[in-house]
């Protein structure tokens, strides 16, 4: 018996020692992966995770950090911004300036929410865009999809298993615990702002239990939110991966990503995992940083193809089903136009180059002419908005004019044949031409076209946008 016990003890000691000697991700002395593999995994994990981390940065700013100047409202409360965006709005890139925004940060862990859209007059575009933590657009309500008669819509998280109650027009499912609802209400001109406020006042949200007049269920646990990285820190800080791990806690794993997550786990990346760069060897840390840089290099190569017109901007925004597993495209959509719409809702023809293929710059003067029968084909409206190329933010100018859009058509001067020529430049083209002036910054810029509820001709390529012509 004594001999048996000694043998058993020896076996246990060997097992325990053996476990302690198995290399782990946190071991600086003996990692379970090569430097090359660490770099490759970091590149792919960064590309995959960028949209989640950057979206979290904005959502934290909007709905969690009440001390931040960009704070909108507490979770599950609607904020209405009854104005157009200006160069002072810097929370996310390429904000539009023709549909005042309303925002709802939805915490769906306890129970679903019931959202009410009011009826609005025919001819006014409005929409509610539903975005999950991956930045997938998973549903729409409003003019294009559900009409202008309004309705009540149930927004449910991934774990809800209840029945749809009476009085609900549609149920929208988020695959993540937190979701974002982005409302756009068309402004028909400066004098129309009071009408926009009336529409926004009709946007309502309530919990399902309040809608049913029932007691609320037990609340989900409080979340100890991480302070997000700045947009600049996201580009190089290894803390990025720890923030990704935090966000993934609220994102049930998708079946299509099981193998991917298994690969990421080698670096300590995954829901609930702890990524601690300080426990890794200097060589592995350098490899991970290089992988992040590789992701940006691949991003830059894609951007060159976009500028040349080889890849359409319509490719980068949409549902999980539309984007599939193209995480580089998803990253591009986040960087160039976070919270942009599906192509069926809005298409975004970009103006990066002039007619000779040169990048546009405010040091030069340009014209953009629409022939009489070649205005953008839309069911709602179109706009052309000026952005600084480096910041992707709106451009300050003496007219406080950030765009030219179709509601402005009655005020624009027509050419002799009925067409329209716009002047795109930094300095005024002259008082007689300022009605058609889209002010540019002094340096590099780009113009973002927006076609809301585009007609088939815009979607299938029958209509194409004109080119910026450099003026001598």
**If you compute it from the alpha carbons, what radius of gyration comes out, rounded to the nearest whole angstrom?**
26 Å
Largest beta sheet: what is the strand line-up?
1-2-8-4-5
Query: Helix fraction?
Result: 25-40%
Mean pLDDT: 92
Number of DSSP E strands: 18
User: What is the end-to-end distance?
Assistant: 101 Å
Which regions contain 5 or more consecutive residues with pLDDT less than 50? 1-30
Multimeric organization? single chain
Structural class: alpha+beta
By DSSP (H or I, 4+ residues per run), the number of helices equals 10
Q: Please indicate the percent range of residues in DSSP E strands (runs of 2 or more).
A: 15-25%
What would you call the shape? globular
Q: How does the major sheet shape up?
A: 5 strands, antiparallel
Question: In sequence order, what are the helices and strands, one letter per element?
Answer: HHEEEEEEEEHEHHHHHHEEEEEEEEHE
Structural write-up:
- With 472 residues, this protein is of the alpha+beta class.
- The chain has ten helices and 18 strands.
- α2 crosses α5 (240-248) and α2 (35-63) crosses α7.
Topology, please?
Blueprint: H1 2-21, H2 35-63, E1 78-80, E2 101-107, E3 113-117, E4 126-132, E5 137-142, E6 151-156, E7 170-173, E8 178-185, H3 193-201, E9 204-207, H4 208-212, H5 240-248, H6 258-264, H7 282-307, H8 320-323, H9 327-337, E10 346-347, E11 350-351, E12 365-370, E13 382-388, E14 403-405, E15 420-425, E16 437-439, E17 445-452, H10 456-459, E18 469-471
Parallel strand pairs: 6-7, 15-16
Antiparallel strand pairs: 1-2, 2-8, 3-6, 3-9, 4-5, 4-8, 10-17, 11-17, 12-15, 12-18, 13-14, 13-17
């Amino acid at each position: 018996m004594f001999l048996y016990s000694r043998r058993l003890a020896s076996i246990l000691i060997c097992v325990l020692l053996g476990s302690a000697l198995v290399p782990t991700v946190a071991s600086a002395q003996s990692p379970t992966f090569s430097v090359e593999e660490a770099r490759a995994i970091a590149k792919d994990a960064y590309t995959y995770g960028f949209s989640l981390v950057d979206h979290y940065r904005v959502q934290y700013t909007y709905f969690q950090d009440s001390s931040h100047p960009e704070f909108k409202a507490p979770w599950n409360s609607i904020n209405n911004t009854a104005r157009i965006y200006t160069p002072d709005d810097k929370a996310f890139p390429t904000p539009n300036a023709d549909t005042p925004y309303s925002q709802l940060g939805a915490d769906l862990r306890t129970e679903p929410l019931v959202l009410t859209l009011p009826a609005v007059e025919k001819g006014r575009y409005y929409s509610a865009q539903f975005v999950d933590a991956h930045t997938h657009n998973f549903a729409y309500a409003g003019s294009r999809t559900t009409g202008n008669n309004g309705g009540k819509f149930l927004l449910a998280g991934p774990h809800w298993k209840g029945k749809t109650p009476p009085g609900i027009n549609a149920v929208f499912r988020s695959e993540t615990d937190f979701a974002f609802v982005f409302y756009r209400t068309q402004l028909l001109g400066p004098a129309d702002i009071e009408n926009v406020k009336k529409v926004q006042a009709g946007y309502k949200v309530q919990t399902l239990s309040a809608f049913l007049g029932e007691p609320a269920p037990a609340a989900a646990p409080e979340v100890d939110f991480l302070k997000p990285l700045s947009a600049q820190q996201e580009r190089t800080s290894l803390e990025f991966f720890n923030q990704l791990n935090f966000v993934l806690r609220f994102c049930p794993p998708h079946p299509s990503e099981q193998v991917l997550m298994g690969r990421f786990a080698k670096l300590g990346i995954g829901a609930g995992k702890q990524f601690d760069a300080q426990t890794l060897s200097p060589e592995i840390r350098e490899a991970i940083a290089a992988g992040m840089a590789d992701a940006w290099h691949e991003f830059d190569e894609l951007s060159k193809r976009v500028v040349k017109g080889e890849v359409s901007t319509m490719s980068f925004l949409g549902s999980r089903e539309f984007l599939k597993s193209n995480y580089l495209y998803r990253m591009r959509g986040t960087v160039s136009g976070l919270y942009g719409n599906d192509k069926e809702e809005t298409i975004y023809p970009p103006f990066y180059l002039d007619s000779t293929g040169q990048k546009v710059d405010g040091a030069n003067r340009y014209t953009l002419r629409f022939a009489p029968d070649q205005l953008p084909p839309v069911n709602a409206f179109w706009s052309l908005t000026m952005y600084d190329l480096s910041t992707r933010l709106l451009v300050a100018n003496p007219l406080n004019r950030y765009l030219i859009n179709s509601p402005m058509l009655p005020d624009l001067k027509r050419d002799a044949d009925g067409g329209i020529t716009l002047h795109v430049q930094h300095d005024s083209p002259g008082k007689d031409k300022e009605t058609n002036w889209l002010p540019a910054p002094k340096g590099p810029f780009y113009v973002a076209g927006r076609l809301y509820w585009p007609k088939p001709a815009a979607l299938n390529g029958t209509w194409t946008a004109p080119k910026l012509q450099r003026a001598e």
